[in-house]
Amino acid sequence: MKTVKLKKRFIAGATCPHCEAVDTIMLYKENNVEKVECVKCGHTMIQPEDSVNAATRQFEQVIGVFKPE
Q: In angstroms, rounded to a whole number, what is the distance separating the alpha carbons of residues 42 and 36?
């Protein structure tokens, strides 16, 4: 069986909702599912890719365009 190496990134300034530790949250993708895990307490949160894409731009609006002079 082939071992797949996951690319994990830490989220700067993020606070774990379970143990409230700061800078211990890492984000990674496993089988097209985004997962967030606290390296201190092991708390995990999972969100499927379709839900992420639907929520990302649903309420986003352009307020204005900056034109430097």
A: 10
